[in-house]
Amino acid sequence: MGLGNLTAATPALAVLGLLVIAALQARAIKGAILVGILGTAGAAWFFGLIHGSSLSYHWADLSSTAFQLNIPAALNLKGGIGVSLVEIVFVFLFVDLFDNVGTLMAVTKRAGLVQEDGTVPRMNRILLADSIAMLFGALAARARSPATSRAHRACRWAGAPD
Length: 162
Hints:
The protein is built from six helices and no strands. The longest helix has 29 residues, at 83-111. It is mainly α. The chain has two domains: 9-46; 80-158, no CATH class. Helix 1 packs antiparallel against helix 2 (32-46) and helix 4 (83-111) packs across helix 6. Keywords: Membrane, Transmembrane, Transmembrane helix, Transport. InterPro entries: Azg-like (IPR045018), NCS2 (IPR006043). This is Xanthine/uracil permease family protein. It is a multi-pass membrane protein. It comes from mine drainage metagenome.
């Protein structure tokens, strides 16, 4: 299984879109990612690279598959730890990591704890405490710890800088 045709117009446009995003980020333009995505989508539409589907979507079309998910088979629970389960664990790992690091940077910047070189003192201890809280929250069937929820709300209310 290969990567496909990398010399076609679609991958070239995707690379161009990434370069536009990188250039806008380097110039510290707010909304660089959104501008890059919308610009790339607009260029794809302009050059006719977006092909619509003739399929129509109706709620009745979902009746054959709705609520038919076989979770044990999807996670391969009968045969041990499958690739699907590992993928799910890694996805949640990175989602939680970036969520926590973003919150941590916003809170520490707002509190004036970020050093001049952009580092946060004792970052490893802070992330360790948060990961332990996340572990016990998962064991208690809570999506996130109350402290993390309060930190997220505080960041939103205070309008923490990016």
